[in-house]
Structure formats: C-alpha cells, structure tokens
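REQUEST FORM: STRUCTURE PREDICTION
Request ID: SP-0412
Submitted by: Lab K.M.
Chain count: 1
Length (residues): 468
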Amino acid sequence: MHRATMTIGGRAVPGAASFDVRNPSTGQVIGTAPTGSRADLDTAVAAAHAAFESWSQKSDAELAEACLAVTNKINAHAEELAVLITQEQGKPLNGMGSRFEMGGAGAWAGYTAGLSLPVRVLQDNEQGRIELHRKPVGVVGSITPWNYPVLIAVWHLLPALRTGNTVVIKPSPNTPLATLRMVELLNEVLPAGVLNSVSCDNKTSNLGAEMSAHPTIRKIVFTGSCATGKRVMQSASHTMKRLTLELGGNDAGIVLPDADPKAIAEGLFWGGFINNGQTCAAMKRLYVHDSIHDDVCEHLVAYARKVRMGDGMDEQSMLGPVQNRAQFDIVSRLVSDAKKKGEVLLGGEAGDGLFFPATIVAGLKNGDSLVDIEQFGPALPVIRYSVVDEAIRCANDSENGLGGSVWSSDVEHAKRIASRMECGSVWINKHGAIQPNAPFGGVKNSGLGVEFTEDGLKEYTDAQVVYS
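STATUS: Completed
RESULT:
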C-alpha cells in the first residue's frame, strides 16, 4: 500500500483526510492520496511565491544545471515511477506503456534543460539599443490529467522551472500517486518551495478550480478536456492569468488510394490505440478511400487480433484497461450506438471490469456519435470516402484541431493534403509521434498556446523590452 503525501515548502504534508486509489486492472486499492484543503493550497502557493524571489534570480546556467539534476533524478527512479503508473493508470509496463512513458519523461526533461531564451537585441545603433528580455511570470499552477501522469507533469514542470518560475502542481485524483512521488523526489535536488504538490478527490474539495482563480498564481498550464479547459479559462480571466491549454482532440487520419494497406496496418493501429486510445493526439477517426477500404480494414483487424490486452503488471500485456469507470461508460455508450449504424469488425462487447477490447467499426459517417465525439478509448471508426476533397472536408468538420495524419506512398502529395488539414500537427504515414524538439499545440477548441522547444519556454515568460 503506497501512502502518498503532498509536498509543500519542502515538507511532506499528509492532509487532514485521504482517498483511495485503485488499480483499474484489478479494482484493488493500491494506495491513498491526501485530500488537500484550500488552506493547503494557500500554504503551497505562499511557499512557491516566497521561493520565487531567489529562484527567479538564478542565472541561466544555474537554472540549466538545476533542471539537469531534475532529469537525473527522474531517470534514477524511472522503474519505481513506472510501476506506480501501471498500478494506478492501468497501462502495461512494457510496449508503449509505463516504461515508455518514463523514457519520454527523461528525454523531455533532458531536452528542456538544454534550452535557453537569451536576450535578443532588436536595435543597436546611434539611435540607441533595444533589448528583448524574457522574464519568469511567477507562481505557475499545473493541473495534469490521468492518461500520462508523469510525462505530462514533466511537460508542465520543466519549462516552468527552466525559465525561473516556481510551481504548484495538482495531479488527477485518478492517478495522483506517481506524480506526488516524483515531486517528493525532485525536492531532494530543488530548494524548498520551488516545486510543491497538492492533491484532492475533486469531490469533497476541488483544488483545480481554486487554483485557476487564485490571485497569487500567475499562470495555469492545464491538460485535459475541452469542457474543463473552458472553465479554467473563464475562472482565470478574473486575474488575467497566462494560460497554456492542451485540450481534447478528435484527430482524423486520411488514407489515400495509393497507400499500401498491409504496410500501414501496424502504424494505423498504434496511431489509434496507443495507451488504449487514451491519448489526446491519438487517431480517433480514420477515413479510407473506397478502392482500398476493405483491404485496410482486413489488415488492420488482423494486426489488432495479435495485440494482447491484460493486467498492466503482466509483462506480456500490450494494452491495459480503460482507466476509470466514467471513461469506460463513455466508450461503451459510443460503441453501443455505433453498433446500430455500422459493422463491428472487431471487439464491440465490454469485457470484465474496466477492460474494453480493441474495437473497430466500419460503415459510419460524420454525424454518427463515434465519429463526432472524442471517444478517448479503444474504439476506432473507419469511414469510407470516394473523393479526397470529401475526406478533407469531413476531417475538418470538427470543433477540435489537435492532430491529423495522411497515409500515402507519395510523401510530397501527402504533404499537400496535410497543408489543408485544420490541426496543429500533421504526420505522414504515422500518427501522434510528438517530439521534444517540435512545438505541439492545437487549433480551434483543442487548446491555447504551444508546448515544447523555445516556443514552449516563452509561454512561461513575460516579454520586457529595455531601451538604452
């Protein structure tokens, strides 16, 4: 039994109450996390605010060195954190599961540690010198989701720390254990108050809503649903907080008629089913040209049948359960509706507990709920089209615009199609392969701002122009 604590001002804080955290593979309680109060949040923010004065004055080299120490600490405890992730999130240890997530966390942390935002000289002549400086905003509030509890926390924390900000982070109540433990570990190499954590059950207390309205928090970075992101934005408006919002996606893939169905089957599967489909930038809709539609479906289903689903702690599992009952019910409802309108090629029936088999449904169209609504789970609709312009129109017919993909034997032609897709990232012959050296963000309802690279660092700073 893992009993987590919050970390506030460098100290372990158990909170006045706690809540159970269950393994979605077994339903068993595997740990407890504190139910933090508004007073705990205020104390954490005050600690971060106090630490900001000295942390923000550190040199660029000192901040880089501190972030490298953070990276080393994450890597040193990668297996410990991977096991916690699997136990609370459900994803397998192997494949593209928890060890994969921790590998990504280390890679992103290390890359971000090496970034910098030097002073930029805009003018230097007889009329005078003008410099553009990037200054840390202050206390950053981070609110993270349950699908990648450590990796997304790293995406939030490292750029904030690298630019001289201090942080209060609140993980999802579904997956608080690994994040709280990581913050505890990182406090071994960071000054007290620079990185703080709070947690709650979102029932008896909802610290996320309190954070987005807190007058001392100067920026909120949030990853989660569009609906919650809009509430964060409304609440944050009263104090003019800076915002980075990475919200839901209903990513479309377009398979062109010259694609090789057998060659792309594995990429299509993992594009849609990575982390059991519980990924913002996973492929949620697949448009396939009429001439190869049946062949693509045949090879996609054949590959999917070989992927083993089971308890995440089983080293042979490649897919785990849906993380929580609420999301399981959403997937079940959408698949149930799809079965009335289309043809289930694989899966379609809920398994035991929170296990839902990889499901592929053909014969659907825009307007059907499994196509229009982000399922965020292991169900993929395959939509037949006959004219490429029609596929592009249908792909863009969404309030979301996070990612998209084009599948073709002609990369240059695929790029031309990609340029017409309304989304922040487009991949050719793959889907969702984000990297730390490329900016990532959505358009339309899929978010505000970008993450990663120097563009992501700037999101944690205010611009100050100095004339001399």
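NOTES: The chain has two domains: 2-247+443-467, 251-428.
Reviewed by: T.R.
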